Amino acid sequence: EGDEAGVRSALDRGARPEVTVPIDAGESWSLLTVAAFKGHEHLLSLLLQAGLSIEGGGTTDITPLMMAAQYGHAQTVKALLDLRGNPLAMDSRGRTALHFAALKGHQQCVAALLPVTPPTPAHLEAYTPVHLASYRGHVEVLEQLAGAGWPLTARDSDGNTPMHSAAAGGRVTCVQWLVQRGGDTSMQNNAGHTPLDKELVTAVKEGDEAGVRSALDRGARPEVTVPTNAGVSWSLLTVAASKGHEHLLSLLLQAGLSIEGGGTTDRTPLMMAAQNGHAHTVKALLDLRGNPLAMDSDGWTALHFAAWEGHQQCVAALLPVTPPTPAHLEAYTPVHAASYRGHVEVLEQLAGAGWPLTAKNSDGDTPMHCAAAGGRVTCVQWLVQRGGDTSMQNNAGLTPLDQELVTAVMEGDEAGVRSALDRGARPEVTVPTNAGVSWSLLTVAASKGHEHLLSLLLQAGLSIEGGGTTDRTPLMMAAQNGHAHTVKALLDLRGNPLAMDSEGWTALHFAAWEGHQQCVAALLPVTPPTPAHLEAHTPVHVASYGGHVEVLEQLAGAGWPLTARDSDGDTPMHFAAAGGRVTCVQWLVQRGGDTSMQNNAGHTPLDQELVTAVEEGDEAGVRSALDRGARPEVTVPTIAGVSWSLLTVAASEGHEHLLSLLLQAGLSIEGGGTTDMTPLMMAAQNGHAHTVKALLDLRGNPLAMDSEGWTALHFASRQGHQQCVAALLPVTPPTPAHLEAYTPVHVASYYGHVEVLEQLAGAGWPLTARDSDGDTPMHLAAAGGRVTCVQWLVQRGGDTSIQNNAGHTPLDKELVTAVMEGDEAGVRSALDRGARPEVTIPTDTGESCSLLTDAARGGHEHLLSLLLQAGLSIEGGGTTDMTPLMMAAQNGHAHTVKALLDLRGNPLAMNSI
User: Fold this and answer.
1) C-alpha distance across the termini of the chain, in Å
2) Fewest Cβ atoms closer than 10 Å to its Cβ: which of 165, 439, 576, 873?
């Protein structure tokens, strides 16, 4: 109330000035903030003397100065500034007191704040007071801000200028004012919208038909799309439909938009209207020929969305134009959706329209399974009354009652679990997971922290060690997820703390990995330390990598060795260094850790830190590790069994900003380690064009070859990385056609990269060169099944009759490849186009075999009759004395052996031995 005498009296009698005041927004304010909000500047000094902060307090992030500015209390603003209130303080959205004054159009407050609030430079992406004043239409405030040097063309983080904001707010006068001062009406924000487009978007969102017409008449582009929080974009018609603005639909269609929407979303305007329950809009879209059978990427139609949300009027509008899906098609139908969400009224509508109530989706779930999973008892009863089978199992072997039990366990619903078990649900069922394994219900309960269900499930016959196909026990899952009470309960129920998964991890490993100290504390007394001489990945390693110093304290206190090595020779200090956990490294050093100890790859912890920094592209981390003595010459072992230099690692990851730094440290531009691939090859293979250019600028050799004779251009061509190819072509001269070499043209042909072939041909690479097997690029394109490449090569003079060293034309090569791969359609296609079935295939032993022999060797019995019909002999051919039957028998293809015998292959034929 601004009662100064009352404030003094209350303080004198012991009232606490630090109390805060709750407000409707769910926050609390300090008393100084309240006084500023009310404009009681005469109370400020008194409250400050009582110990309050000039910047406020409570849970709000809005300062007293912001409050006074927002509510137009100019005298209070001045008083707070005199008392050293900070005009540059920001709330969580980056707004200062000047922002609030500009938003509300309080000119006197703006005038007081301008001298102490310097303009934000235009190049910083920030939402400035100019944006706010523009959005709210305060031209007078814009005059003040411009006079104080605030830029009128600054962009916010979405790329919006003040003119965009003015247009979005429908502030025509502000737009005109900004134009007169040089504002650019064609400037686009990050979504590609000009200010006029922004005005159109806002008008569509608000359903402002006059505004939409006006914006379109003045040149706004109806085809612009609107980004959404889901990461996709919508057309303006989709926006209008989602908002229920059916009066805008015809206008937007006349402007050229599609009734099926646009942008990057796969949802149509009809789906959006149905989802949001706009029945009139649904009807209008149907009248305008919107397609009710269109599907999104999940196979959902507009009827699915209406059924999911329970919008009965929308369902009623869509049913006549959405015929039921037959029950034998495995599809998630609107009946499934309505059942899961418990919309019995919608089920009545769907059943009345002939939708089957027992259809299965791709997981084998019926609507009753979905209703049970959603805990929709009324829906289950309704479905049972209409003939639903409670014993029907889905693909996971669950009946609807089992599904009800699973859902109850997941939700920790003890009454639901008891009820399902009492009615015959099977506790032994397992639950499939996203990781491709299945869990027992006890494992599910433990992972969720539902310790109150454990005894009940054990009494039902489940094992304390879990079940399903996972190798993780319930105790491990509880420990991993930090459920300390569940961990203790499982231990009390004799869960085994020493059980290991396939990686050798116990429950203590999982707790240490996640840093769950209470779980660690519960497990330590029952998990004895692993001796240091055993090469094992211990909880100490895990905690070190995760940076959990508190857990390390616990483990060390329980006697776990701090210098143990795992099977790669890594100590906990190596792990801490690899994880960039400086505090853990220091902690381990203080407890006797040896920074010079090397792992099996020869890396010290500091080397490991350097390796990790290079892998992550962390330049500061690389500099720091090098400055402290990490060795740049260390190499990194790979899964392929070779090792790479750090420069090779950086190039493979596209970290071109590290190249000069690593070269200055003494590394070679051509890489190192045991790999024969150079950094340039790695960058080219992985499509890092900027890194390729940087390596070339640093004199990386584009003509270097690996053991197969491949250059960087080969690798770029293989992957179809056109920008890398473009960078390498000027420095990689073509190989002459008469040299038998496997060229980048061969590579691009085999992998079907026509665009790369265009680049190579333009740079003079011959299109008819032969490799050491006599194959031309056309042979390779045919072998890869690249029809477009073959056609492209033919158009440029390629000879389809040219034979390789084995006597194969490109079409023969296509046939041979199809036979080797067991591709029946490919074999038929090649034969139909004239491929010669009598060609033979050279083998590793220096002999040749017929196509029938090769099919038998590969176990492709489905090709035998086709090849026999083409004229081949059941006894094979070529120079080998092994028959097809011998080949199939040798390679263990029993079905092929039987097929050959049925086709009268001679089991008594003998080879030369």
Assistant:
1) 112
2) 873
| CB-CB contact of 89 with 65 (8 Å) | yes
Q: What is the DSSP letter of 700?
A: -
Rounded distance between C-alpha atoms, residue 248 and residue 8, angstroms: 61
What lies within 8 Å, CB to CB, of 6 at 6+ separation is none
Number of neighbouring beta carbons within 10 Å of residue 396: 17
**Could you give phi then psi for residue 530, rounded to 5 degrees?**
-80, 130
CATH no., domain 840-913: 1.25.40.20
* Three-state DSSP state, 30: strand
Do the beta carbons of residue 67 and residue 37 sit within 8 Å? yes
Tokens of 452: 């109150």
Residue 293 in tokens:
């059978």
Cα–Cα distance between 112 and 688 in angstroms, integer? 53
Beta bridge partners of 226: 234
| Side chain identity, residue 2 | G
Residue 123 — very low, low, confident or very high, per pLDDT cuts 50/70/90? low
Crossing angle for the helix pair 582-590 and 539-546, nearest 10 degrees? 130
Q: Where do the structural domains in the chain lie, given as residue ranges?
A: 427-517, 733-836, 840-913
- 901-908: list long-range contacts, CB under 8 Å, 24+ apart: 903/864, 903/865, 903/868, 903/874, 904/874, 905/874, 905/875, 906/874, 906/875
Based on its alpha-carbon atoms, the radius of gyration of the chain, rounded to whole angstroms, reads 37
**Ramachandran assignment for 131, one of left (phi > 0), alpha (psi -120 to 50 degrees), beta (any other):** alpha
- Kindly report the average pLDDT of the chain as a whole number: 95
CA of 888: how far to CAs of 43, 495, 638, in Å? 98, 51, 37
Residue 403 near residue 442, CB atoms below 8 Å = no
Task: Place 477 in a pLDDT band, splitting at 50, 70 and 90.
Answer: very high
Chain segment 833-880, per-residue pLDDT in tens: 899 999 999 888 889 999 999 999 999 999 999 999 999 999 999 999
840-913 has the same fold as 427-517: yes
Those residues whose C-beta lies under 8 Å from the C-beta of residue 3, and which sit 6 or more positions away, are: none
Q: Directed axis angle between helix 646-653 and helix 605-616, to 10°?
A: 30
pLDDT band at 125 (very low <50, low <70, confident <90, very high): low
The count of C-alpha atoms lying within 13 angstroms of the C-alpha of 297, restricted to the half-sphere facing its C-beta, is 3
Which residue in 311, 294, 371, 359 sits closest to 333, CA to CA? 359
Residue 636 phi/psi, 5° resolution? -115, 120
What is the helix (H) or strand (E) element at residue 431, kind and residue range?
strand 430-432
Topology (CATH) of 427-517: 1.25.40
Class of 733-836 per CATH?
A: mainly alpha
Phi-psi bin for 877: left (phi > 0), alpha (psi -120 to 50), beta? Answer: left
Which distant-in-sequence residues (6+ apart) come within 8 Å of 865 by Cβ?
903
Q: Which amino acid is at 861?
A: E
Pick from 431, 372, 433: nearest CA to 403: 372
Task: Check if the beta carbon of residue 579 is closer than 8 Å to that of residue 557.
Answer: no
Residue 752 has pLDDT above 70, yes or no: yes
- Closest listed residue to residue 863, CA positions, set 893, 907, 906: 893
| E strand intervals along 131-280 | 225-227, 233-235
**Which residue, 834, 829, 826, 832, is CA-closest to 860?**
826
Residue among 445, 455, 441, 442 at smallest CA distance from 493:
455
pLDDT over 90 for what percent of the chain? 89
**To 10 degrees, what angle do helices 400-411 and 441-448 make?**
30
Residue type, 820: M
Of all residues in the chain, what percent are helix, strand and coil, respectively (each to 5)? 50, 5, 45
SS (H, E, C) 83-108: CCCCCCCCCCCCCCHHHHHHHHCCHH
Closest CA to 37 of 71, 63, 83, 7: 71
> What is the DSSP track for 105-163?
T-HHHHHHHGGGSPPPPTTS----HHHHHHHHT-HHHHHHHHHTT--SS---TT---HH
